Automatic annotation (TrEMBL):
<keyword id="KW-1133">Transmembrane helix</keyword>
<feature type="signal peptide">
    <location>
        <begin position="1"/>
        <end position="27"/>
    </location>
</feature>
<feature type="transmembrane region" description="Helical">
    <location>
        <begin position="175"/>
        <end position="197"/>
    </location>
</feature>
<protein>
    <recommendedName>
        <fullName>DUF642 domain-containing protein</fullName>
    </recommendedName>
</protein>
<keyword id="KW-0732">Signal</keyword>
<keyword id="KW-0472">Membrane</keyword>
<keyword id="KW-0812">Transmembrane</keyword>
Length: 198
């Protein structure tokens, strides 16, 4: 966790900076059960991501990001993943091989971190995994395509539809934000007028 916060605090993209400022770790039960430490993913394949979480924690969805321990930068993989889904597949394309990858489940809007995975390995296309336990892609769940390495200017590869259960809350937050923005704008206008008078 310490390493992650160090990593996040070093990141520079404005959007990530916002997450860094607000970063908080949610306290509820939330475990990424796949990939595990021994998991080896191979480029050119769909690979399974699976999670378990508390039912009553009020988390209906999250954003999936991937990072490396040895490098700065995040890969933004999927936004608004429905929590009840339980699993998604990641299809890898030209992702640099390395044994220091981990997944981050976060709400990148408010910066609340839900879970991080164990460290796992990504292998070059057509490599043969040596670990016996690597699970194959699950049928009937969405597959998100991931290409390339960390890139600070990239957007989320896939965005799922907005999570409906939060619609009411989001509207009220937006209203609050709007009032704040209007008030700030008014303040700036008043300030400008004041300066002009003098
Ligand atoms: C992230 O948090 C915001 C604000 O609390 C909320 O409106 C949004 O639905 C959350 N994102 C997901 C994917 O649940
Ligand atoms: C907890 C953990 O990360 N254990 C091991 C996972 O695998 C790497 C090598 O791939 C080991 O260095 C870690 O000790």
């Amino acid at each position: 966790m310490h390493r992650l916060s160090a990593l996040l605090s070093r990141c520079s993209a404005a959007y990530i900076l916002l997450s860094c400022l607000a970063a908080q770790v949610s306290a509820s039960y939330f475990v990424i059960s796949e990939p595990q430490n021994a998991t080896q993913w191979v480029n050119g394949n769909a690979n399974l991501v699976q999670w378990e979480k508390g039912l009553l924690d009020g988390v209906y969805g999250f954003d999936v990001e991937m990072a490396r321990l040895s490098q700065d930068g995040l890969m933004l993989l999927a936004m608004n993943v429905p929590a009840t889904q339980g699993k998604i597949n990641l299809y890898l394309q030209d992702v640099p091989a390395g044994d220091d990858y981990f997944l981050i489940f976060i709400n990148s809007t408010n910066g609340i971190l839900h879970a991080t995975s164990s460290r796992f390995e990504i292998m070059a296309a057509s490599s043969t995994p040596t670990s016996p336990a690597s699970l194959t892609a699950a049928p009937g769940v969405p597959t998100v395509t991931v290409s390339g390495g960390p890139n600070p200017t990239q957007q989320f590869s896939t965005t799922f539809p907005a999570i409906v259960s939060h619609a009411g809350r989001r509207r009220s937050i937006d209203a609050g934000l709007l009032v704040g923005v209007l008030a700030t704008g008014l303040g700036v206008l008043l300030g400008a007028g004041w300066t002009a008078l003098w």
